Amino acid sequence: MLRPDGRVTLIDFGVARSAITAGGTAIGTGGYAAPEQYQGLADALSDVYGLAATLHHLLTGRDPTRQPPFAFPAVRTLVPTLSSQTEEALAQALHLVSDRRFASIDELEYALRATPPISSPYISSTLLPRVPQVDVPKKEDEGHAPTPPGVDSTIVRQRLVAQVGLVIDISDSMKDPIPGRFSRPKIDVLLEGVQRMINKLHVDDYITIITFADRVQVLAFAQQVGTFRLGLLHAVEHLHLHRDVPTNIRLMGEGIATALRELRSMPTPANGLRELMVLTDGRPSDESYCYELAEQSEVPFMLGGIGDDYNGTLLNEMARSSRGMAEYIDRAEALDDFVEEVMATI
After folding, report:
1. Could you tell me which of 221, 217, 216 has the C-alpha nearest to residue 251?
2. 155-189: b or e for each residue (b if 16 or more CB lie within 10 Å)?
3. Fewer CB atoms < 10 Å away: N or C end of the chain?
4. pTM (2 d.p.)
5. Could you report the per-residue pLDDT of 220-270, keeping only the tens digit for each?
């Protein structure tokens, strides 16, 4: 609550009108809840996320409950007078992967206290006039089934609908082995990871699959998983590498742009989440386009660099700009971990 003297106080009246639930228990408020809370998991790092989401709302006036889940644009794109330090602190605290956030509320506080004075039209340290409170008659929600006996009617059950774009490098270099318990071609390990992800998606989720090398192909246009799961798995299983093509042509940017177009063609449910997952083992020939797409996208990029030949600086910068993550995949087992990390966010 923003008090008349400009100070912020944490309160809980226990009357939330919308909450996400797990097993019938309210575990967070939509828009402010961290990704892991949708999985029924919560810890101190979830509180870091929730506080940062609240601060983002206070500083920008942008209500996260009216936006797609986890969509928090960089604050300076909304309020240019805010400092870059404030923007970076909130971006870290709002990271989709919990262990990438500040380790505690104290660390977040320390980072924010080190920033220049906040300048935002939505909040100030000066006295604010009290706003008259008006009693608005409550209106029953329309179009919802009656609340079962014994269940709090203020809790709205929600399920996060995932909309995933997969962008896969199928350049000839993907035939090279990757170390691990059993050394195998990178493409085999990658495709098995993609199949595991498809199997984990719910029938209500959406997916598009794009491949790239010297050209871009749509393996699966934007579609709901529904009854097409087996077809998706079959298409991935029979994917072939592009062989005997110029090694200096790798159109990752074009592949990402195609996936983003497919994602935008999907319906936008109120409780949906869009993510882009990119897997590559080399350096794209359209790096500047990759940078541009990451900077302009509101969809977080989850980037996996396989082996030792990819451009780590590029992937890290793309992850930072899109508020996603980048991982170094140096062995087969690490790809499994990466897939699990991505799935944990959706």
Report:
1. 216
2. bbebebbbbbbbbbbbbbbbeeebeeeeeeebbeb
3. N
4. 0.58
5. 999 999 888 888 998 888 888 866 666 678 899 999 999 999 999 998 766
Last residue of a domain, one of 130, 158, 186: 158
Number of structural domains the chain divides into: 2
- Consecutive H or E run containing 259: helix 252-264
* 280 sits in which H/E element: strand 272-280
Better pLDDT: 232 or 341: 232
Same domain, yes or no, for 185 and 150?
A: no
- C-alpha to C-alpha distance for 113 and 126, rounded to whole angstroms: 18
Strands 184-185 and 177-178: antiparallel
Question: What tokens were used for 333?
Answer: 């087992």
Sign of the alpha-carbon torsion through 203, 213, 218, 320: positive
- Domain holding 228, by residue range, is 161-344
